[in-house]
Amino acid sequence: MWVFEEILPSGEKLTDVINSTNENVKYLPGIKLGHNVVAIPDLENAVKDANMLVFVTPHQFVEGICKRLVGKVKEGVEAISLIKGMEVKMEGPCMISSLISEQLGINCCVLMGANIANEIAVEKFSEATVGYRENREIAEKWVTLFSTPYFMVSPVQDVEGVELCGTLKNVVAIAAGFVDGLEMGNNTKAAIMRIGLREMKAFSKLLFPSVKDTTFFESCGVADLITTCLGGRNRKVAEAFAKNGGKRSFDELEAEMLQGQKLQGVSTARELYEVLSHRGWLELFPLFATVHEICTGHLPPSAIVEYSEHKPNFS
Ligand code: NAD
Ligand code: 13P
Fold first, then answer.
1. Which of 10, 69, 207, 250 has its CA 20 to 30 A from that of 283?
2. In 3-state terms, what secondary structure has residue 194?
3. What is the distance between the alpha carbons of residues 170 and 165, in angstroms, rounded to a whole number?
4. What percentage of the chain reaches a pLDDT higher than 70?
């Protein structure tokens, strides 16, 4: 396991502590990792003999990591991305699995689902979805690799749909957090989640007409949306943002509340807003657009309800 090296307040290196205690004391304290897990600070060294690579890091770091990996991975290596987010390039939006595929010239599946890390770590039952492009055999390999009695994985031939579900639900979770911070109640929150799901589906299908309706009923779709809007970090920090009337920035709250962990929803909302403006789709996605405008201080948190329900006509 490659680990981005950090010096802990004790003066020790994070990788040394993980290897001596078998625990990631900074990001997953209290959980023993498997004894076969070795933390390696050198990226090249960590990947050199691998024939299957699992990518999981906040999405803002992926491009830099891939640049360092060019020419360093084994030929024919298979990859899977657990990363929820996207990049926006001059040419338009680029999903993280495509970025990995294109930069490294390798195949990349995705795994998304209702998977809050702390709960999986204590082996509470959950489901996940593997999205694949064409090769069912590879998808089955990933399913076998990830499946445990408490982690049930299903393959779906819709890589874009699965990845967009995981990516876009983080923006809806920010909206749900605003509703919680404003103490608007469960009916309002459910309404915001429904409107958000409708925008997730419409946006995914506009971007990739091949995206399947059924994908939204898999763990990566409605289930991940529900768990993130109930118990995720995006929701939690957005709630604090609304409670403070938008006076403390997301960066400040993230640093204070998450101790080094990274929010994906705020940057995804900004990236999404760029795509919507560029394509002239802002009017079609009032909830997505409003989340970004609240995050940047152009609208107050209460606008989430006022502005989101301009029912667009998705034909
Ligand atoms: P995180 O938000 O906890 O961020 C901390 C991680 O970022 C640490 O592993 C740290 O080493 C790494 N990091 C910090 N600075 C870095 C740098 N400059 N370069 C590279 N790495 C750096 O991370 P996470 O929760 O593991 O999230 C990673 C991805 O997994 C995200 O896309 C997230 O949406 C997705 N995800 C997270 C969860 C969850 O519950 N945590 C569940 C499903 C999917
Ligand atoms: P948060 O990043 O909001 O905690 O969501 C985690 C997640 O993606 C659960 O599936």
1. 250
2. helix
3. 9
4. 98
- Cβ-based neighbour number of residue 124 at 10 Å: 11
Pocket test for ligand 1, best of 1, 2, 3, 4 (most atoms within 8 A of CB): 4
- Is residue 3 within 8 A of residue 14, CB to CB? The reply is yes
Report d(CA 129, CA 4) in Å as an integer. Answer: 27
Q: Are 151 and 121 in contact (CB under 8 A)?
A: no
Question: Could you give the ipTM of this predicted complex?
Answer: 0.98
- How many whole angstroms from 238 Cα to the centroid of ligand 1? 18
Contacts of 183 (CB under 8 A, 6+ apart): none
Among 3, 25, 57, 129, name the best residue to mutate to test ligand 1's pocket (greatest count of ligand atoms within 8 A of Cβ): 57
57 lines ligand 1 (CB under 6 A): yes
- In this prediction, residues 183-188 reach a mean pLDDT of 97
The β-bridge relationship of strands 151-156 and 126-131 is parallel
